[in-house]
Amino acid sequence: MLSSKIIKLDFPIFTHHPDLVYLDSAATTLKPQAVIDAEKEYLEQYSSNVGRGLYPLAETATEKFEAVRKQVSAFIGAKGPQEIVFTAGTTASINLVAQLIEKSLFSAIPADEPESRSRIKSGMTKANIVTTELEHHSNFLPWKELARAKDATFRVVPITEDGLIDLEALRNSIDDHTRVVAFSAVSNVLGTISPVSEIVAMIKSINPKTIILIDAAQAIGHAPMDVSKWNADFVAFSAHKMFGTTGVGILYGKKTLLETLRPVIFGGGMVLDACAKKTLYRESPYCFEAGTQNIGGVIALGAAIKYIENIGRENIRVHETALTAYTLKRLRETFGKHIRIIGPGEASERGGIVAFSLKDIHPHDIAQLLGERNICVRAGEHCAAPLHRKFHLNATTRVSLSIYNDEKDIDKLVARLEEISEIMSNT
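Below the sequence we write its predicted structure tokens.
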């Protein structure tokens, strides 16, 4: 395992809070000094807009900004920087794809098409959009809304009791009329690791025209990731889940697909000729990046990628898997039948995420009482209501791990949970 004691030296928050036990990295990761310094350098030394100015400061900002696009491309195994679109976050990336599909790719019956009503009445099969019970609301609601807007069937694939996507049910949900399939590489509640390449290959074998989007927010930075091997059409993730800052999202899209799409957000920087009878837009990815991006945040993302690569994603995965196994073991041994841990039973099948319910104690009470001892966890539905309904739970307590955590953090968590259990039993 990595030495969290040494790694914590890279994160200034531990200087200000030396007793901090931060177990909420699935919500947002802490920021190393290198990331903070990179954004600060931009703000202090060459703060200017990108892609516009011809003076040295602007040229420096543009050069560094575009260098990060190349970094991201190499980091995820894309074919080139032209496949990388910067957005405001994973949510923004997924919503952008939904809007692009609605405008450019979704085949709907024209309202004025002759006999369209009779074709509908005769039982013409509707288009359908598929997602799963595993999803964060950000990868659920945009597709539900797109299905409503286009009068398509919205299909939600169930998960198993072990928290895995039911692959047979997924297979049966795909047909010639499937327009979109969206699913997570790693669950933000269960930590479930989905076999992305296998699922994509299965979907494409049934309907090669289906557009596939992967929510990789909880996968990025935790293990090696190669979008070319995944072969999905779109992949979305956020900088703040990988030690970067908030307000920066990444959308990977296959170049051949992005080139067929029409922009849906309009403004400065994305147009070649606004006065032409037919407006001429810039090539991908710039036509999808209207307005000013979070320049400092993108530049900080470059520092975050370098930081992760210096540690090694394989090393990160080994560390988090071992610590997840230790967490599962300590919770099970300490609380036995009084704790319900949802999701895969083995750490190897999870990312560094463990969600549980303890006795009949409300997760919000647990989180607050842990917080009083500077132990940070998340409580609630975690923006994943369908998943919680599946397990007949209103809320759970979620522990999510990173490289700055170690077994001592888990021991402190378990010890405090024992105290909480006793306190709540006596009230």
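The chain has 16 helices and 15 strands.
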